[in-house]
Design a protein that fits this description.
It is a single chain. The protein is α+β, with helices and mostly antiparallel strands. It is about 30% helix and about 25% strand. It folds into four domains: about 90 residues, Rossmann fold; about 60 residues, Dna Ligase, domain 1 (2-Layer Sandwich); about 130 residues, 2-Layer Sandwich (D-amino Acid Aminotransferase, Chain A, domain 1); about 100 residues, Phosphoribosylglycinamide synthetase, C-terminal domain (Glycinamide Ribonucleotide Synthetase, Chain A, domain 4), CATH 3.90.600.10. It has an eight-stranded antiparallel sheet with strand order 16-15-10-11-14-17-21-18. It has a five-stranded parallel sheet with strand order 3-2-1-4-5. A four-stranded antiparallel sheet has the order 6-9-7-8, with helices on both faces. Strand 10 and strand 11 form a beta hairpin.
Length: about 425
């Protein structure tokens, strides 16, 4: 079968890498792709945000399956557009993907179905939000969130009244996130460790699809501004099998049933960002796709055929296919350009790409191929280097050893990915 992977980031490179291993696939295309994806697929310069043109092209290509990797095309309706022209697409409809595209929609759904999450209030007027923050006895910290998609940067943890008022002003008055901030939520700040838990869904049931921990802040020690993600690892001791089953029963399955009851059956990957509080796991947010960088550490551990799983989800026979995992662990470290996550410096020459060990994987993101074959930087996050090993400590060592082999001017990466979990495990 002919498969198209829609997207160009490290997540989509990881998907392409995994799909290329499927015995069901005879031809693989990535669009718009990146230089790394060219090793596993034919790269075509079609933008998945031009949803009608992309769907028409996929139909002309006689694609049997389109796998949509990132949030913007899903929210814009690429899955719907593909299906309208007779091309199967793995991912939720735009209506079902509102669980990510609108935090208000997601929180209302959670509240309606008794799914654990923190208290919240919704505002579309700055004056009302400021009055709420000034109410006597208001507890801090709070989290101020833009309702819409903000590339992972639309949630501001505010330690006190001053920070919260500034966040409200930035979103509702200064329009820092454009239309994504037309409405905001002010939430109680939950306390506890975070993890990302994934499920494959076929419209009726949610099957667990692994768990990972990621690092959103730019600097070591979880300091600095939020980013799209500076690294991740899987599995995590925070989500052992018994906890994963509890999350399935109390959070994932009720969410899928709630969406189906609302007339929006969810088919694709559901990503639950969870806080593990003293009262148990609670939902911070949902995403309507695999995470980036979580995909880069989950997919190398997946033993089963990802294409077979995707087809089963689309055909409503998810219970019949195996979802099996390799033993061991994966640790991924993102390499970023100077200035990320703000203004970044592009065009830096990359070296060392042919020096990685066999126990490491390199997924491209912000890269460009020159006419002479050179690779240069072309974005904020440039690569994810993934180390594999029988233990998390080994995987981490492999990742950082290979990180040092990939060079470009202004390169930045966090040095503490997975360190805390390894230290905690050694102390027990």
């Amino acid at each position: 079968m002919k498969v198209v992977v829609a997207g160009s980031g490290a997540r989509e490179h990881a998907i392409t890498w995994k799909v290329s291993q499927s015995e069901l696939v005879s031809e693989l295309i990535s669009a718009p792709g990146n230089p790394g994806m060219a090793a596993q697929s034919r790269v075509e310069a079609y933008d998945p945000l031009g949803i009608q043109a992309f769907a028409a092209w996929a139909h002309k290509e006689m694609a049997d399956l389109v796998i949509v990797g990132s949030d913007d095309p899903i929210a814009a309706g690429l899955v719907d557009a593909c299906e309208a022209v007779g091309v199967r697409a793995f991912g939720p409809s735009a209506a079902a993907a509102r669980i990510e595209a609108s935090k208000v929609f997601a929180k209302d759904l959670l509240s309606q179905h008794g799914i654990p999450t923190g208290p919240y209030k919704v505002f579309d007027q700055a004056s009302a939000a400021h009055r709420y923050l000034d109410a006597p006895g208001r507890d801090y910290p709070v989290v101020v969130k833009a309702d819409g998609l903000a590339r992972g940067k639309g949630a501001i943890v505010s330690a006190d009244s001053t920070e919260a008022h500034a966040a409200v002003a930035a979103m509702l008055e200064e329009r820092a996130f454009g239309g994504a901030g037309d409405r905001i939520l002010i939430e109680e700040c939950l306390v506890g460790p975070e993890a990302s838990v994934f499920a494959i869904c076929d419209g009726e049931q949610a099957r667990p699809f692994g768990a990972a921990r990621d690092y959103k802040r730019i600097f070591d020690g979880d300091r600095g501004p939020n980013t799209g993600g500076m690294g991740a690892y899987s599995p995590t001791n925070l989500v052992p099998p018994a906890v994963l089953e509890d999350v399935r029963q109390r959070i994932l399955q009720p969410t899928i049933e709630g969406l189906a009851a609302a007339g929006h059956p969810y088919r694709g990957v559901l990503y639950a960002g969870l806080m593990f509080t003293a009262d148990g796991p609670q939902v911070i947010e949902f995403n309507a796709r695999l995470g980036d960088p979580e995909a880069q550490v989950l997919l190398p551990l997946l033993k089963s055929d990802f294409v077979e799983i995707a087809l089963a989800a689309l055909e409503g026979r998810l219970a019949a296919v195996p979802i099996e995992w390799h033993d061991g662990a994966a640790c991924g470290v993102a390499l970023a350009s100077a200035g990320y996550p703000d203004a970044v410096r592009d065009g830096e020459l990359v070296s060392g790409l042919d020096s990685l060990g066999d126990d490491a994987l390199l997924f491209h993101a912000g890269t460009a191929l020159e006419a002479d074959g050179a690779i240069r930087t072309a974005g904020g996050r440039v690569f994810t280097v993934v180390g594999l090993g029988p233990t998390l400590a080994t995987a981490r060592d492999v990742a950082y050893r290979n990180v040092e082999r990939v060079r470009f001017e202004g390169r930045y990466y966090r040095g503490d990915i997975a360190a805390r979990e390894i230290t905690a495990a050694a102390a027990t």
